[in-house]
Write a structure and sequence with these properties.
The relative contact order is 0.11. About 5% of the residues have low confidence. The protein has 2 domains: about 120 residues, PAS domain (Beta-Lactamase), CATH 3.30.450.20; about 170 residues, 2-Layer Sandwich (Alpha-Beta Plaits), CATH 3.30.70.270. The protein has 10 helices and 12 strands. The chain is elongated. It is α+β, with helices and mostly antiparallel strands.
Length: about 300
Amino acid sequence: MLSDMNYKFILDQLFDGVYIVDKEKRIVYWNEGAKRISGFKSEEVVGRYCHDNILNHVDEYGINLCLNGCPLHQTLNDGNKRELTVYLQHRRGHRIPVKIKSFPIYENDEVIASVEVFTENFERTKKPKSMLVLDKGALKGVLTDELTDLPNKRMIDHYLNSKMNDYRELGIPFGIVMIDIDSFEEFNNTYGEALCDRVIQMLGRTYSKAFRMADLVGRWREDEFIFVFSGIKHEALKMLAEKIRMISENSSLRGETFKDIEVTVSVGATLVQQDDTALKLTERCYERVKRSKGKGGNNITA
């Protein structure tokens, strides 16, 4: 028979994250895969309750599942297996899309614990040819933002001009979403430039991991990001804009020496139009961002 140590060794070799909670939802086991995906070490979480500001699962509608609809809690109650897609919060604060499965552990026909297995759920698409230059070291400093390692404004401008050519010559539609961090000047005054830079990095990590279906995600200006989506219609673009707003709102910069810094964003979205240039397209999108800010922020205009 395999010993407990053998089982732990096997589970630690898995690429997936695995953790176990007891009947009180106290974490009793945390494997190396869970550490790799979430950033939390076993000694930081074992003995704590799963709802103690650790993974903070939210669904695609922004509902905090730790407070309403926790799959582990439901499995403990009824013994049924569950599978769903959620966004967990990394130790550094950014959001990561994961597929989770929960299932019960029985003893004498009674559920005594519940297991969650979670796997990174990056929606992978081929990189557009225009993006391949980012992989070449000689151009990386020129076309990427030094703070976030995302495409910078120069690269975004180049890419949008390429998309405009595809639209005119081949009729391939696309849309863009622009976000602006709410109250960023106030953040700067309150927390200082160094922490504000970390907030931008946190959002950059969230966007690059959670929105891989986008053709491009880049940093447009100091506190602004742009997303480009090909072959998209108005309702789908509007849904993605809302998803970006929700994921941003549920991300935060986690600190050990300061209170977690939460952010919201104002979002604008627009589809390419017949008489557009890249400049007209981005200016129209920015006007929609300003309208969202005029509604009090943490809003979308599409």
